[in-house]
């Protein structure tokens, strides 16, 4: 046997050991669970998948079968799913990546497993064309299958989590695409399903790959402040532990540290530094009730006991016990003042509530006794809402994703009907949202509402505890302006669907009216005539013209016919005389065209371009890229490129909201982009300042920027009211470092309370 063959054999043996060890670990985890031990079907699925993926490797270099095993391990260990889910997880890539079909799997493993695998299989490329969003279509398919079997989305979560854990082996453009998609859709989806642990890990991993420097900085700060937190936790919980021991409570007390992504998100939204975030530490009390029937009473007893030790914040008490969140989450949240003068949130939950909080609906099934609980109803209601959005799909992929995302609301309010029924609604919803939630007919004919017996308009925002009575009239019709103030996906999709249906009917009516009018003048409707009419009435599309005619905004009479005839004459004359313009010496004197300054040529991406390679932006080529107005990147900002419909490259910040949607919808068009600047060009930056007004404050601000730092102030706007001033400073800077230096220097000025970049 030659050396090459020996190496191959050794590698194969090492691979087999790796694979078998991973599978044995999976089997052991499954055997230790509470599920019925259907080892045979799991082993059969493993052997089938192993054979199907034989010889294939991942980008990381390990055998491909390790990925399905890892997904099945997450499904079993972290979600607590059973044999059907484990088998489907082992087989989830077989149809997509091999020659086996869904029918083959149905014959071997049964319809249930085959159906789940089908839901997890991406729609093969090429159907939608290069420019269509296959990502959105796949997501749509996933949700459709989820409506029949929730396990489809749960396994997809496991698949996404493992892909995120192994993202390091992917090129940068793929990392941005997968991380962006995860943060935009999959993390909120995990939250909606109550998979808190998975949601947190997905957010952190996305943040790590999208913003590696910020992630590393927060991780360092968390490590540096660990000792302080440990001391605070010990001092705060010691009296609580003594009290609970005296009560005879069987409990566990844990420190909950805010995740890096949550910290960063709060820093961005609240415009605060790491040191100004005071809720990094929270305390979690997990108790095992003496009697499961007394679970809720015991929870409130613990709350009363700890409230005697520390003063509670009156506005920060959250009762998720009697009013669970839509994802099934239950707990009591109370914020207490520690002896160190810090507000600390305490979460009180039973062992059952804790498992449901971490594992969501998947864990709830373990506690079912055959009856359908509230959580099931909540889940079914949510799935039916998703189904409604799918039944009336948005024409645009971005709109569809937004509609779904709207439905993955994080915070909820509780609203009552006139009969006292409680309804869960997203925070920020309006009376019209509530009307559509009750019934589409009620929503489309809604004229107003009574909130707590007081008359309010449709756009009135509801608050928790409101009692709402919807007022309707058959004469009322859906108005286009409604779209602007509704906040739920259900209401928005229904309004748009009704408007689209009405406009289609009006278009058909307008088209027929135009045909009849032309027939009166012995003319047939042709595209050339429609184009002339569009020009006369300044319409962009034929549909807009038909709609305007159908609505009665355009009346067709003799005057309009004359304008049409005149238009036809002019175009003919234009055609007859146009030849002169081609002969230089026949052009009229004084009308010679001045040579136009040529616009910079934009970079276009050809078929041969390798998307894995980064694009570098320098002073020499910056004019070749498009910089949209959505995020104003400057050198130093983490970037990504996006190939638009004309193969040109748009440059966005990686944290840009528009970029988040692009990563989710058009991942195949994402490029890695990097700065390569030499500090020659200047970029616009706007800084917001506010603080306590005093004499010479403006002078001090301008001194620091102009004299001390040598930065040119483009525009300065300051207003002062009752001793408080605020304003904006527009500057010309080279890069992000300049901005940070300015902010740091301004913060040293006496009386300045807040300094942050806004553009």
**CATH architecture type of the largest domain:** Orthogonal Bundle
Strand portion:
5-15%
CATH top level of the largest domain? Mainly Alpha
- Note the gap between the termini: 68 Å
Alpha plus pi helix count: 28
Report the count of strand segments.
Answer: 18
| Sequence stretches where pLDDT stays below 50 over 5 or more residues | 124-132, 365-375, 575-594
**On the 0-100 scale, what is the average pLDDT?**
82
CATH topology of the largest domain: Hypothetical protein af1432
Strand order across the biggest sheet?
1-2-5-4-3
* Main sheet makeup: 5 strands, mixed
What is the 3D form? globular
Radius of gyration: 32 Å
Assembly classification: single chain
Structural class, from helix and strand content?
A: alpha+beta
CATH superfamily of the largest domain: Hypothetical protein af1432
**Helix proportion range:** 40-55%
How many separate structural domains? 6
């Amino acid at each position: 046997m030659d050396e090459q063959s020996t190496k191959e054999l050794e590698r194969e043996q090492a691979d087999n050991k790796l694979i078998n060890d991973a599978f044995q670990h999976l089997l052991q985890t499954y055997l230790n669970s509470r599920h019925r031990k259907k080892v045979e079907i799991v082993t059969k699925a493993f052997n089938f998948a192993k054979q199907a993926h034989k010889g294939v490797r991942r980008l990381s270099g390990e055998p491909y079968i390790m990925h399905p095993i890892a997904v099945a391990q997450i499904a079993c260990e972290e979600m607590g799913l059973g044999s059907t889910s484990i088998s489907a997880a082992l087989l989830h890539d077989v149809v997509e990546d091999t020659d086996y079909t869904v029918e083959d799997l149905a014959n071997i493993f049964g319809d249930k497993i085959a159906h789940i695998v089908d839901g997890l299989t991406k729609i093969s490329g090429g159907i939608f064309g290069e420019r269509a969003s296959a990502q959105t279509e796949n997501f749509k398919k996933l949700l459709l299958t989820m409506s029949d079997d929730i396990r489809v989305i749960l396994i997809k979560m496991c698949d996404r989590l493992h892909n995120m854990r192994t993202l390091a082996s992917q090129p940068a453009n793929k990392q941005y695409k997968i991380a962006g998609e995860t943060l935009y859709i999959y993390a909120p989806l995990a939250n909606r399903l109550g998979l808190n642990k998975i949601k947190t890990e997905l957010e952190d991993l996305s943040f790590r790959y999208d913003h590696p420097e910020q992630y590393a900085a927060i991780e360092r700060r968390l490590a540096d402040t660990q000792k302080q937190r440990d001391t605070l936790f010990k001092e705060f919980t010691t009296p609580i532990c003594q009290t609970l021991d005296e009560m005879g409570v069987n409990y566990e007390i844990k420190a909950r540290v805010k995740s890096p992504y949550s910290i960063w998100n709060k820093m961005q939204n609240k415009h605060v530094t790491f040191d100004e975030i005071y809720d990094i530490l929270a305390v979690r009390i997990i108790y095992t009730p003496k009697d499961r029937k007394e679970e809720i009473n015991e929870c409130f007893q613990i709350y009363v006991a700890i409230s005697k030790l520390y003063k509670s914040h009156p506005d920060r008490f959250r009762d998720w016990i009697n009013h669970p969140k839509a994802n099934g989450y239950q707990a009591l949240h109370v914020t207490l003042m520690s002896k160190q003068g810090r507000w600390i949130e305490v979460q009180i939950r039973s062992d059952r509530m804790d498992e449901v909080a971490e594992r969501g609906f998947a864990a709830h099934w373990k506690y079912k006794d055959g009856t359908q609980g509230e959580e099931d109803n909540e889940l079914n209601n949510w799935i039916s809402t998703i189904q409604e959005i799918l039944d009336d799909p948005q024409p645009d992929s971005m709109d569809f994703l937004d509609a779904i995302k709207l439905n993955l609301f994080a915070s909820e309010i509780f609203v009552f009907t006139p009969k006292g029924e409680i309804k869960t609604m997203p925070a920020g919803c309006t009376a019209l949202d509530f009307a559509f939630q009750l019934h589409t007919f009620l929503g489309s004919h809604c004229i107003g509402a009574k909130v707590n017996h007081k008359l309010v308009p449709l756009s009135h925002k509801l608050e928790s505890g409101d009692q709402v009575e919807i007022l309707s009239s058959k004469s009322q019709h859906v108005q286009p302006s409604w779209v602007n103030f509704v906040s739920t996906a259900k209401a928005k999709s229904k309004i748009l669907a009704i408007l689209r249906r009405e406009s289609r009917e009006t278009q058909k009516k307008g088209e027929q009216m135009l045909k009849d009018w032309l027939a009166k003048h012995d003319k047939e409707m042709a595209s050339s005539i429609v184009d002339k009419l569009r020009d006369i009435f300044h319409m962009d599309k034929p549909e807009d013209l038909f709609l305007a005619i159908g609505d009665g905004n355009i009346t067709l009479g003799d005057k309009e016919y004359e304008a049409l005839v005149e238009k036809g004459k002019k175009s003919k004359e234009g055609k007859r005389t146009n030849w002169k313009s081609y002969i230089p010496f026949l052009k009229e004197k004084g009308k010679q065209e001045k040579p136009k300054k040529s616009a910079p040529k934009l970079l276009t991406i050809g078929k041969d371009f390798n998307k894995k390679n980064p694009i570098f932006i320098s002073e020499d080529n910056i004019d070749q890229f498009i910089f949209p107005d959505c995020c104003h990147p400057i050198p130093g900002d983490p970037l990504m490129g996006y190939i638009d419909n004309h193969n040109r490259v748009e440059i966005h910040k990686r944290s840009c909201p528009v970029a988040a949607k692009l990563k989710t919808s058009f991942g195949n068009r994402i490029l890695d982009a990097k700065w390569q600047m030499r500090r020659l060009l200047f970029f616009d930056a706007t800084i917001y300042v506010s603080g306590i007004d005093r004499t010479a404050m403006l002078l001090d601000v301008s001194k620091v920027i102009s004299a001390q730092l040598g930065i040119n102030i483009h525009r300065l706007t300051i207003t002062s009211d009752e001793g408080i001033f605020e304003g904006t400073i527009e500057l010309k800077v080279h890069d992000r470092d300049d901005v940070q230096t300015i902010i740091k220097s301004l913060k040293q000025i006496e009386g300045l309370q807040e300094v942050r970049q806004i553009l």
